[in-house]
Structure formats: C-alpha cells, structure tokens
Write a structure and sequence with these properties.
The complex is a heterodimer. Chain A is α/β, with parallel strands linked by helices. Chain A has ten helices and twelve strands. Chain A has a domain at 2-41 and 48-100 and 167-206 and 272-292: P-loop containing nucleotide triphosphate hydrolases (Rossmann fold). Chain A has helices spanning 47-54, 76-84, 106-115, 121-134, 139-142, 152-165, 182-197, 209-215, 233-238, 243-251, and strands at 2-13, 19-31, 35-40, 62-67, 70-71, 87-90, 170-174, 201-206, 218-223, 226-232, 282-286, 289-292. In chain A, helix 4 (121-134) crosses helix 6. Chain A is globular. Chain B is 27% helix and 25% strand. In chain B, a hairpin with a 2-residue loop joins strand 11 and strand 12. The mean pLDDT of chain B is 90. In chain B, the strands form two sheets. Chain B has an eight-stranded mixed β-sheet, sandwiched between helices. In chain B, strands 2-1-4-5 form a four-stranded antiparallel β-sheet, with helices on one face. Chain B has a domain at 3-88 and 205-255 and 265-311: Rossmann fold. The chains are: A alpha/beta, B alpha/beta. The A-B interface holds A 42-43, 151, 181-187, 189-190, 193, 207-211, 213-215, 234, 237-238, 247-249, 251-260, 266 and B 40-41, 151, 180-182, 184-185, 188-189, 208-212, 214-215, 238, 248-250, 252-260, 264-268, 271.
Chain lengths: 295, 316
C-alpha cells in the first residue's frame, strides 16, 4: 500500500545552510494494509525523518514515496489536504500536541471544519463518540475537558481517534508510547494492534526494541540513515545477523536476563563514514530476513 | 546502616490545599547498597529523592527524619542542608543534560563550583581527570562548552561532577530516561562501577523503568500514591512479587526475547488517586483485582521473608 523506493534525504545545516547532512540513505520499505511495521534505531538514525517524509512535513531529496502505486508528493493545498484524508500522524509528546488554552476535544472540531463542513452537528457528535469508543475511551469522561485534566494515555488515544475520523489508510506513529507510564502504555500499544485488525497500515517509529517486538510483524533496524537489518520480527530479534543489531539487543534491559549474565563485549562496528555513498546492499539470509552486507 | 528514613512526610502547598506527595515513608539503606525506586509518574518517587537533599523550595517538610551515617540530616532547613549537599548527599538530576551552565567551559564551571565549597580546583584536577577517563572521556572535555558534547557525554560529565567529593548518598533521578539503549546501558553500568570503586557509599536510583533498575539494583522499592507498597531484593521483586500493584506493573511490560504473536498484555485500569485528598485504607484498592472489604482499612506491612516487605492485606 505505502511504499518507499530508494528514498534519500539531505538537510542543509550550519550557518546559511553551508553544510549538508544526509539523514536518510537509500531506504526502501513498504507497508501492507493490516500491518504494523516498526522502524527502530537510535537518535540520529533517521527514523523520524522517514516519518516526516511520509507525512510530507519535509521533502524527499531523491527516490519516491508511493501510496497505492501513485507518487504522494502533493502540489498545492488541495492535494495536500486530500492526502491527509488517507495518511495521518501521531507524535511523541501528547501534551504539546494540544493547545492548552482550548478544550482538548477541539481537535475533533477542526477536523469537521476542514473535512466535513456539511455534516450536521448531531451526526458529527455521534461519529466522535463512536471513534472514541473505538479507542476505548469513555466519551463522557474525556469530552469537554482541558488537556491538563486528562492523562497522557487518554490524550494520545484521542489523537488516534481524531485520525480515525478521517478514513485513513496509514497511521504514522512516531514514539507515541515513550512519554506514557508503564500502566497506560500497554493500552495504546494494544490499540495499535486493534487498528491493524481493521486493515490500517501503521508505521511505528520507536527506539524501544521491546515495544517493536510486542506489536509488529516486521521490523526495520536503522543506523546512520541506512537500513542494516530488516525482516520478520521473530527472525530479526531471535537471530540478529548484523553486529549493530546484536549490540542493540544485548543492551536492552530485560526481566529474564541480566546484563552481567551476557559474556561478550560489544562488537566493533564500522564508524560513520561518508554518508553520500550508497550504503551496503541488503542480502536475503533467510526467508523474510535481510541484512546489510559487511562493507 | 548508611541511611535511615522514618515516617517521612512531604507536602506541596497549592491553592486548593496540601498535596501529600510523601505520606509516611520509612526505609533504610545499607552501606554499598543500590536501591531502585520505581513507580508511575506522580507516585512521589522523585519527591522522595529530592526531599533527601532538599532541592526544591516548594517542598514542605511536614514530619519524619532522615539519619545519614548516624547524623540527622536537616531536611527541613534549606540553609543547614547546604553544607551537606554534594559532600554527604549528592544528586544527578532528572534533566542533567540541561544542568550544565551553557555559558561556561566545563572545566571552568567545575572550578567555580569547587571554589564555592571552599575547595581548590588544582587539588582536585588530577582526580577529576582520572574519573573522566574512567567513564571514557578525555581531559579535553574540560575545555569544551556543554553544547559541544553529545547527550550521553554530558550525562557522564554530570555523573563525574556529582560524585567528585565522594558523597555518602547519591540520588540518581531518571538518569537514563533520555538516552538511547546503548548509552543507557553504559550509564547504568557506570553507576554500579562508581559504587564498586567507593566514589559513593550507597545510591538511590529513581526510575520508571523496572527492567532497567533490575539490572543494577540490589533492592527495589515500589511506590504507589506517596507510599512504599513493596520492598525486596531485586531478584525477589521480579520473580515473586507479592503486591498486586507490583504484579500488574511487571505484567504490563513487553519484552524483547519473548514471542507474543496475538497474545496481549493487560494494562492497569484506572489511574492513581489524587494526593490532595488521598483515600483511606489501601490506596490501590480502586484498581486492584483482589480488593475486598478489609482493604478499606489501612493495610498492614507484612514481612513475607527477611528483607521482603509488602503493604497489603492479601500478602499471605
């Protein structure tokens, strides 16, 4: 459904944009309907830039992004608006996604104003209550409240509900769990699981490997802007082939294994080199399991 | 016994009344012990950490005592605490990346801090450099401005700085939350190393991440709504938790290395009570699957086995 083909992104940085930083290098991924694809990486790996490009918050330098076979690059306001009917995003910090001066349910009203001006108020209220129930929120306890009166988990689920008011096909979820408490984060994760059962494609961007392991069928591990390993979650996490993936997995704190039980020192990795050179190609090492070749 | 805290009560004053962030907290800390303090946001874990060094002017110390190395800490008195801070009690703050003065080179900032304590930078310089090298930094960082360092490097500078005077008690408040997994592990293991090398005698590690604290702590305390609900050796808390809240927290934690398929974990329904007017009896009972009538009364603290204490009616 959503497809990224050899996508590159370079930012201009430094005084007056005198330098260039290549943040995403030759990334090709695809998401099918009813699938959660996790993009995992450390800060600076380019994972958020991928989300931004899919949401057209930043342009693509090279390569293309296709939705149902058509290039998504929007020209002008109308095309962009039509695109956002199909693709929406939810971000890390729920508290800064809302304007604290207004009540939180204003986010639904703005959707009505721009996308459904013809819908009668009574019908609209019914629709809002419907999507709220869909994300397991009690409309009575979240409507007509200010953002500070609601918890992070509630706000985050309202933002997902807002996206569902539009008949979206793809949801970009960029670190939507990291600011939430252990007791509520699992609710939001399980909600993503339900969305995929409804046929939505979810691009789940995270630095937390345990969340990716829990929710997604397929996972992509990124380093220095390029994909180092990709494939079925079970295969990548139980049998990581790239030294970087192995280091990452060894660092994740777990409840059934202590770091001190592990033996090996972290493996040596090649340093960040010239980012304008194409990254090593992916080779298939197993069914549904690709690894970047050693340079 | 390094630290002995008895019946600590700390409130925040608001327009609507006092928020009872800590409501009768008692625990002790042995020499060389690393204790992990875990819980949801708003449970009072950061307040507990900060109240022992009295870093926040809005805190009102209502009752209780803290005795460090046989000497009572004046935790209700800002001025008197000043002489103890850094030398006896030190803290690595939650946002230590922004704790460094951006207008000073790191070396100069440390020199100024030492001078403010009546110490000479020259005397400490060799030790400072030795410790920086220990955490993988070179002497060169002293000539850098904070902006020139990465997040993980800044975190390590602050760790070295906080422990430079060999405090007896170190409070590490969410030190790994803003870091990547690999940095997280490096920083957590450095904390253990500092303890092993005797830079700090004992440590309280405040975090919301149970799996991380399990890696480094000897003892874990779980807090809920201003109180400690369970305290036990790290292994015991994770392998055989007794309090329903601890069990629910562990049950809601997805992990790497397990295959979930279509299996779904359970969250904890509801949210913690407001501490402006906390409920009587067990504070977890509104969300607890085991709650019954007896939970309306204050739960007893039961010692399940040596070192494992639970505040719950159902502990047996």
């Amino acid at each position: 459904m959503l497809e990224l083909k050899h996508v590159w992104k370079s930012y201009r940085i430094g005084a007056l944009g005198s330098k260039r930083l290549t943040a995403v290098r030759d990334v090709s991924i695809d998401i099918a309907p009813g699938e959660v694809l996790s993009v995992v990486g450390e800060s600076g790996s380019g994972k958020t830039t991928i989300g931004k490009m899919v949401l057209q918050l930043t342009s693509v330098t090279r390569g293309e992004i296709l939705l149902d076979g058509e290039d998504v690059t929007a020209h002008g306001h109308a095309e962009r608006k039509a695109y956002y009917r199909k693709v929406q995003g939810v971000f890390q910090d729920p508290f800064s996604s809302y304007n604290p001066i207004f009540k939180a349910d204003r986010i639904f009203e703005t959707v009505r104003e721009s996308y459904f001006p013809g819908v009668k108020r009574a019908e609209w209220t019914a629709r809002v209550e419907d999507v709220l129930q869909g994300v397991r929120l009690d409309p009575g306890s979240v409507l007509d409240k200010y953002p500070h009166q609601l918890s992070g988990g509630q706000l985050q689920r309202m933002l997902i509900a807002r996206a569902l008011l539009l008949d979206i096909k793809v949801l970009v979820a960029d670190e939507i769990i990291s600011m939430l408490d252990a007791s509520t984060r699992i609710d939001v994760l399980n909600l993503l699981g339900e969305l995929k059962e409804r046929g939505l494609g979810v691009l789940f961007i995270t630095h937390d490997l345990s969340l990716a392991n829990y929710i997604s069928e397929r996972v992509v591990i990124m380093r220095h802007g390029a994909v180092v390993e990709a494939g079925a979650t079970g295969k990548v996490f139980t049998d990581p082939r790239h030294p970087y993936s192995r280091n990452l997995l060894a660092s994740v704190p777990q409840l059934h294994r202590k770091w001190s039980d592990g033996t090996a020192e972290p493996e040596a990795l090649e340093p960040d080199g010239d980012r304008d050179v194409a990254p090593p190609p992916l080779t298939e090492v197993d069914e549904h399991h690709w690894v970047a070749a050693a340079p | 016994m390094t630290l002995e805290v008895a019946d600590l009560q700390v409130h925040y004053r608001t327009l609507k009344g006092d928020v009872r962030a800590l409501d009768g907290v008692s625990f002790s800390l042995a020499d060389g012990e690393i204790v992990g303090l875990a819980g949801e946001s708003g449970c009072g874990k950061t307040t507990l950490g900060k109240s022992l060094i009295r870093l926040d002017g809005r805190m009102r110390h209502v009752g209780g005592t803290a005795v460090l190395d046989g000497d009572e800490l004046p935790i209700g008195d800002d001025k008197a605490m000043n002489a103890r801070r850094w030398k006896e009690v030190s803290i690595i703050p939650q946002y230590s990346m922004s704790a460094l003065n951006p207008t000073r080179k790191i070396g100069k900032m440390i020199a100024e801090l030492l001078r403010a304590r009546g110490k000479s930078y020259r005397e400490f310089k060799d030790e400072l450099v030795r410790r920086l090298e220990l955490v993988g930094l070179t002497e060169k960082v002293l000539d850098n401005y904070p902006i020139e360092l990465s997040g993980g490097m800044k975190q390590r500078v602050v760790m070295v700085l906080s422990t430079l005077l060999d405090p007896s008690l170190l409070i590490a408040d969410e030190v790994t939350s803003a870091l990547d997994v690999t940095n997280q592990r490096a920083v957590a293991e450095t904390l253990v190393r500092f303890r092993d090398m005797g830079f700090v005698k004992s440590m309280i590690v405040v975090t919301h991440d149970l799996s991380l604290v399990y890696q480094i702590a000897d003892t874990i305390m779980v807090m809920y709504a201003g109180r400690i609900v369970e305290k036990a050796p790290a292994e015991t808390i994770i392998k055989s938790p007794k309090h329903p809240y601890t069990r629910a927290l562990i049950g809601a934690l997805p992990e790497v290395g397990l295959e979930y398929g279509d299996e779904r974990l359970q969250s904890i329904p509801g949210k913690p009570p407001h501490l402006l007017n906390p409920p009587t009896g067990c504070r977890f009972r509104a969300r607890c699957p085991l709650a019954s009538e007896e939970c309306e009364a204050e739960p007893p603290t039961v010692t399940v086995e040596a070192g494992h204490e639970v505040s719950c009616w159902k502990a047996n």
